[in-house]
Amino acid sequence: MDWNLMIRNSVKQGFFTRALQIYSSMVRSGFHGSEFAFLFVLKACAKLPSLGDLKKLHSHTLLTGFQSHVFVQTALIDAYSKCRCLRSARLVFDEMPLRSLVSWNSIISAHCRDFHIDQSFAILSRMQLLGLELSPTTFLGFLPVCSLPQGLSIHCYITKLGLDDDLPLANSIMSMYIRLSQIDGALSIFDSLLQKSIVSWTIILGGYLSSGDAAKVFTLFNQMRRRCVVPDSVVFVNLLSCCKLSGNFLLSMSVHSLLLKSGFHQKDPIDNLVTAMYVDCKDLVSARRVFDDADEKSVFLWTSMISGYAQLGHPREALHLFNMMLRTASKPSEPTLAAVLSACAEMGSLRTGEEIEQYIFLNDLGSDLRVQTSLIHMFCKCGSIKKAQAVFERIPRKDLAVWSAMINGYAMHGMGKEALNLFHQMQNEERIKPDSVVFTSVLLACSHSGMVEDGLKYFRSMEREFGIEPSIEHYSCLVDLLGRAGYVELAMKTIEKMPAQVQARVSAPVLSACFKHQNLELGEMAAKMLFKLKKARSSGNFVLMNNMYTSMGKWREAEKARRLIDGKGLVKEPGWSQIEIDAVV
Q1: 535 CB-contact burial (10 Å; exposed 0-12 / middle 13-18 / buried 19+)
Q2: Nearest to 280 by CA among 255, 299, 263
Q3: 3-state class of 457 per DSSP?
Q4: Residue 434: what pLDDT?
Q5: What is the distance between the alpha carbons of residues 256 and 274, in angstroms, rounded to a whole number?
Q6: Do 391 and 372 touch, CB atoms closer than 8 A?
Q7: If you ran DSSP here, which 8-state letter would residue 499 be given?
Q8: DSSP 3-state of 584
Q9: Cβ–Cβ < 8 Å for 171, 199
Q10: Which residues of 285-295 are buried (b: 16+ CB within 10 A; e: fewer)?
Q11: Would you say 423 and 407 are in contact if contact means Cβ atoms under 8 Å apart?
Q12: What are phi and psi of 473, to 5 degrees?
């Protein structure tokens, strides 16, 4: 029986635990391997990583006399480093009587991996003093963790040594510049390469994707195709992510077509990304077709499709698909449950939400903060504020999203005082800094509870104390707050002080307030602002103007408003309500 061969094959196939078990069986049988066997089992420890097994193997090298072999000692340095035990790695290095260039490179990488980059530079200086010939591998450890000034210095030194024509090293330098948001530096290196590997193309495509430049990604991809470079699955991952970012349907279809021709369409995570891409393009039919065509559906694919239905206003389909998933071997993950709870909240189905909550606890998934936040949101939307409170109170360590969900729940239920008390508790007791989403909920709570002074105070403090620039949502809440309380003139003056691009988009609450408080003059002003936006020219706003004129006896003006509705081909959407009876909405 060739023990060494079995260990080597197991490591090469990725069966690292099995390799360690074979080595253990070999030792119990009274055999010990060669130095090459040690190299493979040490690599298995590094890959797992398993510090306990590594220490046992280290003692075996001492017992069998292999501790003096340079290759074994270097493998020990690398393994200790990857098991996050830099101290042991350094001890092995310091005790080596002879060190190869690989040993020096390994200890540099070990310090870089542990973010002790200054010590890595000190070791590099020692190598120079000893007159060692530096290789491209010497610098690979620095590039993933260095700062921009350090990276520039390393790049200059690499160029000085004439190592910049090494393709793997050049690719790593490109990755460094992209990590440090220096895309122009990465492109400069890319353009200077005489030979570009598929990895080079993938790195530069990923760089422009991370910077949000979808047009440049596709320009480079077209260059890649003209040079007859065959794209791999990683390139398609970048292209699909780019389509998802842009939301361009025709572009998405083109990439999908190319993907089908290339034969990568049923590889994970490609099918998941294609489904998510079509969801972002709001094409649920194509997304479902991709989902149905997948031979093996991963939990990520199920989650993408369920989330798509939930996000695009099809909660019933989301819940139906979730029930289908439960009948398969795939088990829902925390993101899956968050998406399903969102569907329950959208549909207002408390009974279904409670059933999912029971499933969560039975399967021990209740500790995830995303799931707990979704439960709070679902109970609030389904009208059960007490159950939302119960979920909130049993969370031991609450993050900002949890606090935000509960504050928003109080806001939508008109419980302004409770929302503000929780807001103060979050800051004073938990020392959590609010973000723009929390302030939207706070302003909403003030608006629904008629707390004008509090609302104005928090709106001012948002920018002054927390440096949060007001968004359209914040301005809308402020205008709604003033309008609901009857301060229509103040609301209009507030709008006039807002940035020009915001004014028209926050005028709808004023129009509604003018109708409520019978202020025709300001209502007409608000309507003029509102109708500057194409999106605001909905039948509801015109009907509101018509009703305002009618209630004040302005029959001629009311007729004009009615003609505008008919002339623009607008149709008043009928109102509707829903109730839940025996778990059926």
Answers
A1: exposed
A2: 255
A3: helix
A4: 95
A5: 7
A6: yes
A7: -
A8: strand
A9: yes
A10: ebbbebbeebe
A11: yes
A12: -60, -40
Residue appearing with tokens 């004040």 = 552
Residue 568 makes CB contacts below 8 A (sequence gap 6+) with 537, 542
Residue 246: its pLDDT value, please? 85
Q: What are the phi and psi torsion angles at 581 (to 5°)? A: -130, 120
Cα Rg of the chain (Å, integer): 32
* Per-residue model confidence as pLDDT tens digits over 97-148: 999 999 999 999 999 999 999 999 999 999 999 999 999 999 999 999 999 9
- Are the CB atoms for 294 and 272 separated by under 8 Å? no
pLDDT at 480: 84
Percent of the chain with pLDDT over 70: 87
Quick one: pLDDT at residue 536? 45
With CA atoms as reference, report the closest residue to 346 among 317, 305, 387: 317
Q: How far apart are CA 278 and CA 290, in angstroms?
A: 9
Please give the pLDDT value at position 288.
96
According to DSSP, residue 506 is labeled G
Q: What three-state secondary structure class fits 581?
A: strand
Q: How far is the C-alpha of 205 from the C-alpha of 380, rounded, in Å? A: 43
What is the per-residue DSSP string for 113-156?
Answer: HTT-HHHHHHHHHHHHHTT----HHHHHTTTTT--HHHHHHHHH
Burial of 460 (0-12, 13-18, 19+ CB in 10 A): exposed
Say if residues 210 and 184 touch (Cβ distance below 8 Å): no
CA distance 470 to 475: 7
Model confidence, pTM: 0.78
In contact, 170 and 136? CB cutoff 8 Å: no
DSSP string, 200-269: HHHHHHHHHHHTT-HHHHHHHHHHHHHTTPPP-HHHHHHHHHHHHHHT-HHHHHHHHHHHHHHT-TTSTT
Per-residue confidence (pLDDT) for residue 156, from 0 to 100 = 96
Contact 274, 240 (CB under 8 A): yes
Classify the phi-psi angles of 115: left when phi > 0, otherwise alpha if psi is within -120 to 50, otherwise beta: left
The confidence band for 301, taking pLDDT boundaries of 50, 70 and 90, is very high
DSSP symbol at 470: P
Q: How far apart are CA 81 and CA 98, in angstroms?
A: 20
Average pLDDT, the chain: 88
Residues 497-552 have pLDDT tens digits of 777 767 666 766 776 777 676 666 666 666 666 555 444 455 556 666 677 777 77
pLDDT for residue 501: 66
Q: What is the mean pLDDT of residues 459-480?
A: 89
